[in-house]
Here is the input.
Amino acid sequence: MPRQKLNEQQVEALFAEWKDMRTELTELHRQRDSRAAGRMTEALVLYERLLASCSVFGAVPVNGEERLEFIKSRSENYAAFLQLDELFSEMGKKVASKQAQLKNRDYKG
Here is the structure.
């Protein structure tokens, strides 16, 4: 059975895109700009793409589904933005851990 690897370039691109969105969303929320809700919708699509890429490896945040529903139901809310930022942060940690496990396994194997 072939070993699966995380596509590091693809995942890194998604995190880089989030970094830019995060900066913009922070400023939109700071200014109480109504465009934040639309941008959050785009950020949710980005997160779902990341989740789809990583869930096959078991890299999913704790209570991720419930937290994602909270974000979707309150996307215009600053608390939803903070929760989405936490989900991205947790995914980053889980992806890094999984990549290290795969590299270690390849090194030993």
